[in-house]
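Quick one: structure tokens for this chain, please?
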Amino acid sequence: MDDDSGAVTRFALALYRSSNVSPACLTLQDRLDVDVNLVLYAAFVGAVRAQVLTEAHLNSARGVVDEWHREVVRPLRSVRRRLKTGPSPAPSPATMELRRGLQRLEIKAEVVELAELDAVAAEHDGPHAGDDASARATAAITVVALSISGRPPAELDAEILEAVAVIATAAAELANDPPA
């Protein structure tokens, strides 16, 4: 296997900056309570690595990052979001500066998580997933959405399916022109 050191992180950061991907990721995060980094990781596994993301592989990845995500990333996000409207003295100029600082820390914590997912990807050599990068990414992201949310496929409504499609399409485009 080639040295993919940092490949997940580079891909995820570039993908998240792609047109309409950030709001699509936040839709999945807010509607299904999924870890956006796992969505971006799934897109990498499908679109770039051309591998099937199995439930077992996803559970392995989750096992590596769940504690960090739950105990570091989510609390930072929760406090940052709370400062948008309160408690008193928020919102104020001082608390908005604090909020921006928390956002920077949250992003750094997310990058630490992505680095852990880089290691998981380097160890994974799953089955080949077919020739269409967008379809592969869609399938992998759907595994994350269904597994983490615990919903059956029929409960993935149009908004969720559209969010998955936006991310998968951008992932396929990025896979054809990967970030350096």
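The chain has a mean pLDDT of 92.
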